[in-house]
Structure formats: C-alpha cells, structure tokens
Amino acid sequence: MVNITINGKAVEVEEGTTILNAAKKVNVKIPTLCYNPDLPPWASCGICIVRMAGSPRMVRACTTPCENNMNIITHDPEIIAVRRTVLELILSNHPNDCLQCPRNGSCELQTLAEEFGIREAPYKKVMNSLPIDDSSPAIVLNPDKCIRCGRCVKVCQEVQNVWALEFLGRGIKGKIASAADAPLGESPCIKCGQCAAHCPVGAIYERDDTLKVWNALQNPDLHPVVQIAPAVRVALAEEFGLEPGSIITKKIYAALRRLGFKTVFDTNFSADLTIMEEGTELVKRLTEKGSDIPLITSCCPAWVDYMEKYYADMIPNFSTAKSPQQMMGAMIKAYWAGKAGLDPAKVYSVSVMPCTAKKAETRRNDDMKSAGAGYDVDIVLTTRELARMIKQAGIEVLKLPDEEADNPLGPYTGAGTIFGVTGGVMEAAVRSAYYLVTKKELADVNFTSARGLEGVKEAEVDFGNGTKIRIAVAHQMGNIAAVLDKIREARASGKESPYQFVEVMACRGGCIAGGGQPYGCTDDVRSRRTAGIYKDDVQSKYRCSHQNPFIKQVYDEFLGEPAGHKAHQLLHTKYVERELYVK
C-alpha cells in the first residue's frame, strides 16, 4: 500500500493504482474520454491531466501509477484551462449536428462540453467530410464523428481478437476504418457491436430499424408480433432511471402492447425450446460412437460468425440448433400463425435483442426462412432502439400495470431466462441433460461452476450414474482461443477431447452486456444485471426447460419429439466456412 494526498485529502491505495482510480476513493471525478474500465488505458485524449503540488509538470491520471507520498492536485485554474483547450480542439474537428446524432443525450463529448461550459468555437473548424459506411447489416460507421480515442480499436483487437477496425492516416487526417479500409460489411467484423458499446460519441452505432417497425405497426394488413430476449428485462429499466438489474419484464409486455404489437411472446420460451433440442443433441453425441465431441453451443450469432471465419474446422462440433431468436421466429410463423388462424405472410415478426449481431443473424442463410413465409424474423431491434420507441410514444413504462406474455409461446422457466448470462446456456443444458440421461430431477439446479466473470470456466458434471462430462464456458471473444486450441491440440495428438460440452458467448458477461444494451456497461453493471437474471430464475415456478408445460404442448401438438423430422426442419441450421474478407 502507498499513502498519497489528493486535493488535500489523505488516502491509502494499493501500489500500482492509477491516479484516476485513486481519486475515485475520495469521490473526485477526473474527466476522461479515451479511458474505459474494460480496456487497458493508453492516455490518448489528454483530458485527465493532473499535477503534483509544487510542480508545473502535468501527467495523465489514467496511466500514471500512485507512488508513496505523492501530493496530487486534480483541479486548479490552469488544469481546467488545459482540459477546456483539449475539448475545444477536439470540437474543431467534430460535426455540429448533435440534434441529428444517434448519441444525442448519451454522448460523452457532449456531456463534457456542457460541464466545461463551452459556448464558443475559438478554433477554425476543419472537417474531413468522410463518407458514412453503412455496408454492414448491423453496425454503421461515421468516421467524421470519430475523436480518435481508440476505444473501438482496442475492444475489437485486444478484447474481442477480431481485428476488424484500425486507425488509418495520422494527425488531423487520421481516421477510424475497417481493416484494410474495406467496407465494414466486407471485413472480418462479426457484428458483436462492442465497438458501438464502447464508442463515447456517435462514430459507431447500431443500424436503426425503428422506422420500419413503426411503419409495420401502422399497417392494417399486418399482424405485428414481438419477442423479447432474456437480457432485455434486466437492462431496459436503465434507460428510464432505474438501477442495472431491475426486472421490469411484465411492464415491458405492457409497453409493447401500447406501442401497437398485437401479440407479445418471450424469447425465454424458445430458450427452453433450444435446451430441448440442444440437450437432446448433447445426449445423442455422448452416447453414440463416432460422434463429434465436444458439442459447442450456437446461440450467439457473433460467435457463429467468428467460428465460420476463424475456426471452420470446428463446424462438425457446432450444435445445429438455431438460436432462441430464430427458433421463436420459426414457431411464430409455422405453428402459432396457424393456431391463431392467421396467414403467416401477414405476420410481421419483430424481436428485441441485447445484441447487434442478431440483426445480421436473421438473414444468415435460407434456414432462416424455414416457415415458408419470408424470413422467420422480419426485423430486430436492440434494447436501445426499443427504449427510444417507448420514449417517442410517450409511454411511462415504469407506471404501467404488469401484464403477462401471450400463450403458448410466452411462459418460460428459470432455465430460459439464464440464457442471458455467460454460463447460462451451459447451466440450463445441464439441468435438462441430467434429466434426459437419468430420468430424475436434479436435487440442486444451481450449477455455480458455470457462473461468474472469469474468462474461461471449467468443470466436471457428474450425473450420478457413471456418466461424467467435462465442460468449458468462455465469454469475450479474446478468451475462446485458449479453449479451442486445447481441443485442436488433443485432436492433433490423437487424444480424447479435454471437453465434451463448450459454451461460447462473444461479449464479456454474455448477452447482458451485448452490443445493443444501454451504454456505460462495466463489470459492476454486468454483475448487477447478472444478479437480476438469477433473481428471475429463482422466482420462476419451473426452473428446468423440460418442465415447461407449454414446451410439452408444442411438441405434442406440432413438433413431435426433440430432434425429430419437423424439429430439424424448423429449429436447426447448418454452417459453412467463410472468408475473412468478402470478395
């Protein structure tokens, strides 16, 4: 530990703590733009400068470690003047179209400009007038708004290990661009949206599809149906002032009906359906000789994209089960529409997801048109887009009465809701796979070995009848190589796979921190959203997917049996090797 003084207040911190983090201990906020707690600091913007008492020299608080007996001044007239100048210089190379910007009201640069009272522009405006790149089905890149903080590059390269973004050029001519300056839609981008989630301004954002949904809601010839993902219920409330992890599921149902959706379903139901298909697939692979082991989960579309580009040799190991979003889309048009007496071609299927990659998933191949009525999911909204629609409609969501989702594709189990967190798919699968193997219910359904924010989690599950399976859970794309390389090494040497079941989620923490969730996600926010998910699990009437009575109903009435012919036709897909760059 070291003893320091910050603005006259003594504080003891662990050796190596940066001045920026030490200041938080005495409730002093040092302004930043390039810093993000998810990323290694690199002192790009210079706004966090501070000084030592008695010295004119300024240092950057985000990268400077505390040393014993430091006497730090974080705010004085000169420091404030320097920070103000830095902001004015950034603004001289930044558009003045805040009212049209997708980050208006949530822009970190805008907030700092307001805090520093910047009302004039002392420097000549110099704009590069670069074109907007909207070639991706999920992400839009506006390089003119880039402030060159580097957060998107660092998260793409160092956290996600995708390397789809980079800096090109230098100085005022420098810009953010996709790798090799190719269109973003033709680059190695996996559409995870972590670049957009970490961008402090409006340089990278999700494709806005709200107008398409508004038009569909106003079309009298359409029957608009909506589904909401597990992670949405513990994050949407943040857009309306509540704490992360606040569960407002039933108020979301009510808000969706007031927006004009005629039927409201829950993706948690199709998460239960996914477990029935994927759990059956796992048991089959474990019991049949010559099966490809390990089985790797396929619910995360960014991970699917990454696998097809970087680990195509693992395609035989991938579960053929579609994601819950796509299973729900197929069931809405193939099963529910007929049950409701509706023409499937008139059903407009919308999903609300925490993930930008879900926008691309709906069009990934022809398997996404399995119901025979166009694409099974017509459009995807992120959590942020839904929040904007609710605000546009003047709906006071927190004051709405609780409402229920519609049957039969609405009721869900706790296993369905934990799909929203890292380890959740694994835990849900174990709960039902145990039953499928032993025909007995687990005495304790809480599989805590799969939980937490550790990058890779490993465990062994004992089914009690001589069957044991080795599992691995990886989240945050940069962590998956460690798992897959172990599998490759064992395969190359002729050894048994170190794992039999592997779960992967592209984003740190899982879907609760997806690229379409409310801005400002940190590990603290992830933990609180995760706690909300597990609270929803614990308070559920049923906690295992196979216990859901409506799951039993759809198999009895329509699908037949898990992994049967009709289930394969509607609920399963295939994968192909893809080039890193689209030719």
In total, the number of strands is: 17
Number of separate helices? 18
Major sheet: arrangement of strands: 2-1-5-3-4
Mean of all residue-level pLDDT scores: 94
Beta-strand percentage range: 5-15%
SSE-based structural type = alpha/beta
Distance between the termini: 55 Å
Shape: globular
Gyration radius, in Å: 25 Å
Helix content: 25-40%
Low-confidence stretches: none
Largest β sheet strand count, sense and barrel closure: 5 strands, mixed
Verbal overview:
The protein has 583 residues and is of the alpha/beta class. The chain contains 18 helices and 17 strands. The chain has helices at residues 19-25, 77-91, 108-115, 151-159, 194-198, 210-217, 249-259, 267-287, 301-310, 324-339, 357-361, 383-392, 414-417, 424-438, 480-492, 523-538, 549-559, 565-571; strands at 2-6, 9-13, 49-52, 58-60, 71-73, 139-141, 165-168, 175-178, 204-206, 223-228, 263-266, 295-296, 347-353, 379-382, 456-462, 468-475, 501-505. The chain has a five-stranded mixed sheet with strand order 2-1-5-3-4, sandwiched between helices.
Q: Which characteristics define this entry?
A:
single chain; five-stranded mixed beta sheet; four-stranded parallel beta sheet; globular
